[in-house]
Amino acid sequence: MIRFLGYIAAAGGGSIFLSFYNRFEFDTFTMTVHSIIAGASTWFTTLTVGRLVDRWGDLRGIWLPGNVLLFLFGVSCALLPPGHGYLVYATWPTLAGTSFALNGVAPELLAKLIPSDLQGTYQTARSFVFRLTMAIFMWPWNQ
């Protein structure tokens, strides 16, 4: 269920970002700075994944925080009013970079529970469910 919620958020992520981008129309340099800051946050979060899993386990250390932060990032992008683009310097590193790192490693934490002779079937099914979710849950506000 947790992965399914992540897939729904990923399916709507492009629409959320495009509506956010159309609202602010940042220039290339500003978007590059935002990406570098979020990328640095992603890198630092990735360094802590091992400690998070050792301390709190997969569910409480990676899956739940990753999806909660991803949801909060989507809400912040959707509700950030025009003229307040400077808030991106706070929301992207704290919400986007961190959630992208945690959700990036989450599928592999689930895959470690699957026996090696079933990995191909599992990976194919996971890809199918992700693509099906992206096809069904198109987010309508960027139409």
Automatic annotation (TrEMBL):
The chain crosses the membrane at residues 5-22, 28-50, 62-81. Signal peptide: none annotated. Keywords: Membrane, Transmembrane, Transmembrane helix. It comes from the Eukaryota. InterPro entries: MFS_trans_sf. The keyword Hydrolase does not apply. This is Major facilitator superfamily (MFS) profile domain-containing protein. It comes from Pyrodinium bahamense.
